[in-house]
Write a structure and sequence with these properties.
Layout lengths: L1 H30 L16 H6 L2 H17 L3 E6 L5 E7 L7 E6 L10 H9 L2 E6 L18 H14 L5 E7 L1 H9 L8 E7 L5 H13 L6 H13 L8 H7 L4 E6 L7 H10 L4 E6 L7 H4 L1 H16 L2
Parallel strand pairs: 3-4, 3-5, 5-6, 6-7, 7-8
Antiparallel strand pairs: 1-2, 2-4
Length: 321
């Protein structure tokens, strides 16, 4: 009888173990492994406020203006090599009225450097050179996994050095959205060129573990433990990082650069509470702007003029110019 119980227990344990490994590999392939397929994330839709802001006709006209402007610009494709040997690509737009100012715009999950046209146009009109990298595992950049900002942070240090050395930028800002926001927050804890003057993070998450746990709960109605822990181990084996170490909180705690944190109060993809926690832990000169009615990365859509004024004030304070 005792032997039978041991066999049953062993079989049950083995089945659970195999199931967890299978689940971990499944979630790795869905969330981490490079793929051209988009993922329908929880909370990623357009908010009611954004949908009602402009009529379809007004929105179409505005979009056409941005597209027309974008098509007139000549973006140069530039390349660097990462510390681990990947060829990373970016679109670079040199301002025809050089001012020594430059911005690195960081896109979100499954995005690419062709995105963010509205904010690109605004920065250009303010005299900025614009660098828009394809994050590793995205767009034209090499890489077979998504780093959620963690390994990307070292890539963005190199992109900052590129702007300082090759483009002659005197004042550089890093501005990211969603995963790109978490990326620039993680970069903030690194040793950056003195030309980098500030960090702008729009809708960034605290840690990869917390964000993926949030998605797991709502998309699959599953508890984070132990699936996330197993997936993290698999990610460490296959991609070289763990979800817990990929922390914007730890990086921001080390940051000494001015920091502007932007978050919508209706953000269901990256909960607003995450932006507040990032702000609370930051020790540098910092500002938190919670945008009423804005869902995920919708602040620029909902409050464009105020967003632009916030940026101008932040630049001035950070550079003293």
């Amino acid at each position: 009888m005792k032997k039978k119980i041991i066999l049953i227990a062993s079989g049950t344990f083995l089945a659970i173990f195999i199931g967890l490994i299978a689940a971990g590999n499944y979630f790795y392939n869905v969330a981490i492994n490079r793929s051209q397929e988009s993922v329908d994330l929880h909370g990623g839709g357009e908010s009611v406020t954004a949908a009602k802001l402009l009529s379809a006709e007004e929105e179409q006209k505005k979009l056409e203006e941005i597209i027309a402007w974008t098509e007139k610009q000549t973006f140069e494709m530039v390349e660097i090599k990462s510390e681990d040997g990947l060829k990373l690509k970016a679109r670079f737009l040199k301002n025809n009225q050089p001012s020594g100012k430059a911005v690195i715009l960081a896109h979100g999950y499954k995005g690419n450097s062709e995105q963010m046209p509205g904010i690109t146009k605004f920065y250009y009109e303010q005299g900025y050179d614009i660098l828009k990298p394809d994050a590793r595992g995205h767009g034209l950049s090499e890489g077979d996994y998504i780093g959620y900002g963690w390994h990307d942070r070292k890539d963005y240090v190199l992109w900052s050095k590129f702007l300082a050395k090759e483009a002659g930028a005197d004042d550089i800002f890093l501005h990211g959205f969603s995963m790109g926001a978490a990326t620039v927050l993680m970069v903030s804890g690194e040793k950056l060129p003195e030309q980098v003057k500030g960090i702008i993070a729009d809708s960034g998450y605290t840690t990869v573990l917390e964000e993926l746990s949030h998605q797991l709960k709502y998309l699959y109605n599953l508890p984070a433990f132990p699936v996330m822990q197993v997936t993290s181990v698999i990610t460490n084996i296959r991609a070289g990082y763990t979800f817990a170490e990929a922390s914007a909180l730890d990086s921001v705690e080390k940051n000494r650069l001015p920091l502007l944190i932007i978050h919508g109060d209706k953000d269901a993809l990256v909960p607003t509470e995450m932006g507040k926690r990032i702000f609370e832990i930051a020790k540098s000169d910092k500002e938190l702007w919670i945008v009423p009615g804005a869902g995920h990365t919708e602040a620029y859509t909902i409050a464009e003029q105020e967003y632009q004024e916030k940026l101008k004030a932040f630049w001035t304070k950070a550079t003293g110019k």
